[in-house]
Amino acid sequence: MYYRGAAAAIVVYDISNQASFTRAKKWVQELQAQGNQNTVVALAGNKADLLEAREVQIEEAKTYAQENGLFFMETSAKTATNVNDIFYEIAKRLLQGQAAQNPQAAGMVLSQRPNERVVSAASCCSS
């Protein structure tokens, strides 16, 4: 796994495979131990379209995410459920993190200019 300097990471597991959730937890531990403490980390339970084959309960994953400072979403690559949403949430959290670290960069600063006097030029071609 390459994570040096990463601003964000998505740790994905298969909701129909408990062993994949166990492996995902190890990846989270690795990120927490070796990565940047400001990295935005998402836990994604993929294959949400396979509800009948679920082995990892949503509450188990939510609890784990909350306890470890992650945000959680269930996704489906097959149906595209929450695929865009997880990236939007990462972008939102990255912007919030930047604003917290550098409040002056959080927006555009507008300053009022003093009224500039407009000088009308005399016509050069008057007769």
Automatic annotation (TrEMBL):
GO molecular function: GTP binding; GTPase activity
PROSITE patterns documented for this protein: RAB, RAS
InterPro entries: P-loop_NTPase, Small_GTPase
Keyword DNA-binding (UniProt): no
Organism superkingdom: Eukaryota
Alphabetical list of Pfam families matching this protein: Ras
UniProt KW keywords: Nucleotide-binding
Name assigned to this protein: Uncharacterized protein
Organism classification: Eukaryota, Viridiplantae, Streptophyta, Embryophyta, Tracheophyta
